[in-house]
Amino acid sequence: MSAADRLSTIQGHLSGNYPKGLLAGEVAIITGSGQGIGKSCAELFAREGAFVVVTDIDAAKSDQVSADINAAGGKAISIAGDITNPEFPEILVEGTVKAFGKINHIVNNAGFTYDGMIHKITDKQWDIMLAVHNTSPFKIVRAAAKYLRKKDGENKCVINVSSTSGLHGNIGQANYATAKAGIVGLTKTIAKEWGVFGVRANTVAFGWVDTRLTRAKESGAAIEIDGQKVALGIPTGAAKAAVNPFADIPLGRAGNADEVAGSVLMLCTPLASYITGHTLEVTGGRGI
């Protein structure tokens, strides 16, 4: 996309004369998009004209999000699967190109927590966090290299989702924090190696966003790992009941999935055409 094309797109959108959206005709893969932030990203990208590839380990959820987008007038397909399966990145990338002919954006959003104090974290807990948050995004990006590393003038961006845990560490999350710090390094390397092809790469580090990972662990949300049920969320209790968890957030509240999806969208649009290698903290001001 030339500078003139970018300017025309932005001006048209701001004036209300660009009804097809800021990502019209572009193709976006969004992992972990069967629910939560990923689902909100998929829906928002579709509303901005992108052809969306919904992918999630839960096939029923992945298929439903895709069906809902199509029913609303957007364009989406579902390619469900486990991103830690060594064969899946290639399946995902080739399925995308077969359906839509190209790839413009990859949003590596899929992930979960598997908490434990440092002295209690098992090898399994450690390894799965790096597999999900580092190895799988790397393999997806690598599989897409032959489609992204072209001087074709297309608007292209890789978004890797990190966390404030990765930037600042967090008690009980040595494995998750390490993985989320690692994805920042991968992002910067993509930006440096592929910038010559017009590919931008940025990281979004979310703070407290209302999802199954931040709700009370007692609510019962869980994920199954090798047949074992792993509880998700933050432990709560009577001792913490009177504490305001948002006291150090200037906006005074948690974010919601729909609003934080806007940060991911923004970085993929022509509005961010000169932003690459950046980590955007989406925290409501927490940590400033």
From TrEMBL:
One of its GO terms (biological process) is fatty acid biosynthetic process. One of its GO terms (molecular function) is oxidoreductase activity, acting on the CH-OH group of donors, NAD or NADP as acceptor. It holds the Pfam family adh_short_C2. Keywords: NADP, Oxidoreductase. InterPro entries: NAD(P)-bd_dom_sf, Sc_DH/Rdtase_CS, SDR_fam. Belongs to the short-chain dehydrogenases/reductases (SDR) family. This is 3-oxoacyl-[acyl-carrier-protein] reductase. It comes from Phycomyces blakesleeanus (strain ATCC 8743b / DSM 1359 / FGSC 10004 / NBRC 33097 / NRRL 1555).
